[in-house]
TrEMBL record:
It catalyses: 3-dehydroquinate = 3-dehydroshikimate + H2O. The keyword Lyase applies. InterPro entries: DHquinase_II (IPR001874), DHquinase_II_CS (IPR018509), DHquinase_II_sf (IPR036441). It comes from Staphylotrichum longicolle. The keyword Protein biosynthesis does not apply. The active site is at Y22 (proton acceptor), H120 (proton donor). Keywords: Lyase, Quinate metabolism. Its EC number is 4.2.1.10. Pathway: Aromatic compound metabolism; 3,4-dihydroxybenzoate biosynthesis; 3,4-dihydroxybenzoate from 3-dehydroquinate: step 1/2. Homododecamer. Adopts a ring-like structure, composed of an arrangement of two hexameric rings stacked on top of one another. One of its GO terms (biological process) is 3,4-dihydroxybenzoate biosynthetic process. This is Catabolic 3-dehydroquinase. Belongs to the type-II 3-dehydroquinase family.
């Protein structure tokens, strides 16, 4: 099993932004904990964070070995070319605000046909009304919210041990 953990806009500020809502754990802590948790479960894990919707779409496509048809720079480091080494068996995604806005992220996840778990640190249902709607939840295998950063730990455990893996 191989997990891709994606964090969307502003999650690079985890631990610093609105700590009364999101807590004091940083994204670096979340990612390194997830990586060691994965290795103790005998699986591999990659992480990706971006504040840019298109970069997240590119990364999801790259997970399936696809990518933008023409990359602007030729040889080096374009997301579509370099990162699709290993197809994830599952994606864990906290899309941040893109949860509530992005048909493009939804379409990318459906396009690559990789099962995914949606994670939110906060309880999105106990906040502003616009956070109640998610463009992903009806297609997610599972949705976690309100557990704080423990939600990532729960998602990794679930994806590693309990989630059905698609046969290719
Ligand atoms: C979030 C909830 C979203 O509504 C918000 O825009 C975020 C973080 C969460 O983890 O609780 O950026 O996804």
């Amino acid at each position: 099993r191989h997990i891709l953990l994606i964090n969307g806009p502003n999650l690079n500020l985890l631990g610093r932004r609105e700590p009364h809502i999101y807590g004091s754990t940083t994204l670096a802590d979340v990612e390194s904990h997830a990586a060691s948790q994965a290795s103790s479960l005998g699986i591999t894990l990659e992480t990706f964070q971006s504040n840019h919707e298109g970069a997240i779409v590119d990364r999801i496509q790259a997970a399936a070995g696809w990518g933008p048809s023409s990359s602007s720079t030729s040889s080096s480091a374009s997301a579509g070319e370099t990162q699709a080494v290993k197809k994830p068996t599952a994606i864990i995604i906290n899309p941040g605000a893109l949860t509530h806005t992005s048909v493009a992220v939804r379409d990318a996840l459906l396009g690559v046909d990789i099962p995914f778990v949606e994670v939110h640190v906060s309880n999105v249902h106990a906040r502003e009304a616009f956070r109640k709607h998610s463009y992903l939840s009806d297609k997610a295998v599972a949705v976690i919210c309100g557990m704080g950063v423990y939600g990532y730990t729960a998602a990794v455990e679930f994806a590693a041990r309990h989630m059905k893996v698609k046969e290719e």
